[in-house]
């Protein structure tokens, strides 16, 4: 038995919106055997644009039952049926969410008439309900009302039952089928064609624009995991509604996928990526000469057109490192902005300062130690490569870090590994780096030292 369902709502996601109308048409596979329809009081204002679209006003639903008042009847009507709808995950998410709030747990098999339509009648100009039914010669009365749309969907579904010569409905309902969980516009063939290898995947909207970039240890498993649950939240529902296709780039290792994801999010700025889109406030050491000729070391945020001598992830890391430089290279705490008061320099008491802040040491002598400290920082920033498995047995992957900064990555033949930095750069693809990528690579190198190849500059 099939329950063809259509609802009208106050908004696009169930967690913050109510249902204003429900219609259910029960079909036994041969004919319609029962109909159910009711307005529902959502106990919230119906937005004006939805009132204009559906014709359902606040006055119309004021005396209608609330959802808890119809929950038991609706649950009994649906619980042993196959839930059918046009873009089924939208209707199902609302019904399931509001039934759960009323104390009923709905778990039905689902069929999406959008996805079925693409299979049974491929190549049509549109599969939206209004245009799809018009192409199939089905008249809709009361468009954008639950009963009218449910009746039209029921007629459409009956035509699908009669024209499904390749058994798509049976395939959709078979155990293990992913069809009912996929977004309505995403072809199953694209998901089925994804490899079980590391890589980066891209979700595209109807115009081909990338709206989400993700990384994966296994591309197919990770992409499918996005559709494993049907959250009622706005973000998830908007996300699913906008996915029309998926493409990918395979990578030799999961680390390369992490790096490429970070690079691509910065490059493409996808609509539904949030975690790595926040602006980085990277800190660094800046060296400048003051009016008296002494070099000063200051900590500041790295701006777009500035070039710090050395960068670090956060302010405490920078302060700790600068204090170590002051102690190890006999620098002045005042000239390094560690001591900012007008009291006697603490470095004179500790022996680190030789009196530069009191003009007791010549600028040339003090500046030489500052230069030595900065050169030490540069030498302490290693140049190395991470050599790991490739995308095939014929190659190996390579990630290059030069003087502590991520340079790029790529693939080299399994039996021909360049030992010179210049030769290696010729076969790698340069990528913009940041502290997130640098930390990823350095952490990986510390975990797997056997995969690290160091270079002396």
From TrEMBL:
SMART domains: EXOIII (SM00479), GIYc (SM00465)
InterPro entries: DnaQ (IPR006054), GIY-YIG_endonuc (IPR000305), GIY-YIG_endonuc_sf (IPR035901), GIY-YIG_UvrC_Cho (IPR047296), Ribonucl_H (IPR013520), RNaseH-like_sf (IPR012337), RNaseH_sf (IPR036397), UvrABC_protein_C (IPR050066)
Sample GO molecular function, one term: exonuclease activity
Ranges where the GIY-YIG domain occurs: 196-274
A Pfam family matched in the record: RNase_T
One Gene Ontology term, aspect cellular component: excinuclease repair complex
SUPFAM superfamilies, per database record: GIY-YIG endonuclease, Ribonuclease H-like
Matching CDD domains: DEDDh, GIY-YIG_UvrC_Cho
GO biological process: DNA replication; nucleotide-excision repair
Subunit structure and binding partners: DNA polymerase III contains a core (composed of alpha, epsilon and theta chains) that associates with a tau subunit. This core dimerizes to form the POLIII' complex. PolIII' associates with the gamma complex (composed of gamma, delta, delta', psi and chi chains) and with the beta chain to form the complete DNA polymerase III complex.
PANTHER family listed in its UniProt record: UVRABC SYSTEM PROTEIN C, UVRC/OXIDOREDUCTASE
Role noted for this protein: DNA polymerase III is a complex, multichain enzyme responsible for most of the replicative synthesis in bacteria. The epsilon subunit contain the editing function and is a proofreading 3'-5' exonuclease.
Name listed for the protein in its UniProt record: GIY-YIG nuclease family protein
Protein's organism: Hufsiella ginkgonis
